[in-house]
Write a structure and sequence with these properties.
The complex is a heterodimer. Chain A has a single domain, classed as MetI-like (MetI-like fold, Orthogonal Bundle). By secondary structure, chain A is mainly alpha-helical. The radius of gyration of chain A is 23 Å and the shape is elongated. Chain A has ten helices and no strands. An eight-stranded mixed β-sheet of chain B has the order 7-8-9-3-10-11-13-12, sandwiched between helices. By secondary structure, chain B is α/β, with parallel strands linked by helices. Chain B has a single domain, classed as 3-Layer(aba) Sandwich (Rossmann fold). In chain B, 33% of the residues lie in helices and 24% in strands. The chains are: A mainly alpha, B alpha/beta. The interface between A and B is medium-sized, with 27 and 37 residues.
Chain lengths: 305, 323
Amino acid sequence: MTLEVTVRRRRGWADVVIRLLKKPDVAFGLVIVALFYAWSMVEGVLQVVGALLNNPALGWALLPYNPFQPHLSQSLQPPSILHIMGTDDLGRDILSRVLYAAPYDALISLVVVGGGILIGGFIGMVAGFYGGGVEEFNMWLTDLFLAFPALILAMVIEATFGHGYIYAMIAMIVVWWPSYARLFRAETIRVRSMKYIDAALLSGLSRLEIIRRHIIRPALITILPYATLDLGNVILFYSMLSFLGLGQQPPLPEWGSMVALGLEYFPRWWWYSIMPGLVILIIAVATALVGDGLRDVIGGEERWV
Amino acid sequence: MGVTLSIEDLQVIYKTPDGTIPAVRGVSLELSESEILGVVGESGSGKSTLAFAIAGLLPKNAIVKARKFIILNNDALSSPNVFNKLRGSGVFMVFQDPFSSLNPLLTIRDQLAEAYVTKVKQSKGVKVGIGDVDDEELVEYLKRVNIPDPQITLYKYPHQLSGGQIQRVMIAMALILEPRILLADEPTTALDVLTQIQVLQELKRLVDEIKTSIIFITHDIALASAIGDRLAVMYGGLLMEVGNTEDVIREPMHPYTQGLIASIPSKSKYEGLLNEIKGIYVPTNLNECPFAPRCPYVRDDCKNSLPELRRVSNRFVRCHLYG
């Protein structure tokens, strides 16, 4: 008697995506997030190439309107077929401005979360793996940074060193890494107590190999859902900074600063601040949904049946 | 037959914020090649701490003291690096909880290959990539521990295996590494009775095939007597009775051993209650017999002086009754 048995050799990322798409809310979030980053990449490349070729018009080649060209006759038009999100006080198309600003938010979310994982991951994993005085010091440092309210700390950094996109990025990494340090430390301690670490030690693997093969991966995988969800938090926080005038400087469009400018025209010309605000909200909710879904899918992977 | 392990007066003390806890209070053991030593004791008797001390896997807050601590002709007291030297072919361990013994993110193949690669590196000095290890080679090891459908099991993840299968994978890992000493820390506690016997048989085969010595740690004296050539009974961090399994089971001398053997369930409920050892383990002063509070034969001197582990006829016993 022969029995056909199929074994999946690897639960690859394709499998994770398929399982994510099976849940309607997570699928919705995943589509939004994918669209956001895909668009940001295209638009970002166009803007960079445009700047390099000294032809900024390339930056709005795909947009319905030039996001910088004022049309005072068209100012504060409500949403319509011509201007889906309406126009601002200078008659600029809000949709075009929102789309033009997207790459900045996409880039800052990836850089800040990535930077947080790198710095926090290093500090947290070293603390968790070595323990003792190293752990004390690392965690003291972490707590020191966590003790300040994040927004105030970011504002202080920007006030001291300067305003603008790059400074906002640096300030946010400084604010962001401590929570990752804590997560990575906790994960490292959890994984270290597993008997397979002992077994690996006994089989003669070096400490470095053990960290590489048995600690980084499980720690990263448990932190991945949180990091995904965090992308939205970064965008929210950056919008907050721009709202306060600490992000992108005019005339460059930015979601948070558009909300801030639009407030002067609220509520009669509501679309000016509501539309960019809505975009921020949708992106933040979408990343939260994907992060949540990932936690269910990946989290289940590691748990024992 | 060579001596693989020789310990004299091994003490392990845990430092905690609330003070120090003596977990092992002076254990002397000698283990020969191909010998299986069963270590029996209840929770908190220090038997697992003893195993982790021999593997060099004690946590940082543990202090180890001994008069002599020789593993495979290496003096473990000389420096902590001795354990690093032994890694890979000296000491291996099969753990109590099968479900944390293997990395849940890697296939059985990758984890066996990991052991295989370190073994090849150590014995032949050749570096092989984990991906380059021949599957057939690993399948052979799984066959030797009687894993059904080894080709398929090789590409499974740990959560797809039963506890017994995981313990057999651990034994296969031991077959790869060929350790001189294998520590089995209650490897069958999480398994059902039939699987227990199979795992015991695999362990015995290990002794025949690679001439390893095994320290089999358990709370079940029946199990220990089924596998051990010699039996060591631990209580309160001390050895209470050490002797050949036959002798100890037939004619237990220490009251604690007697109690353990009497409490093996052998009656049906119509024949009355099961026997038990009265009371629970309580820490005692260092200068009294730790079993005194529960001992049916307790005398005054038991509370005033700790008996020595003395040779009595064919074994060693720590009890004032045999003074």
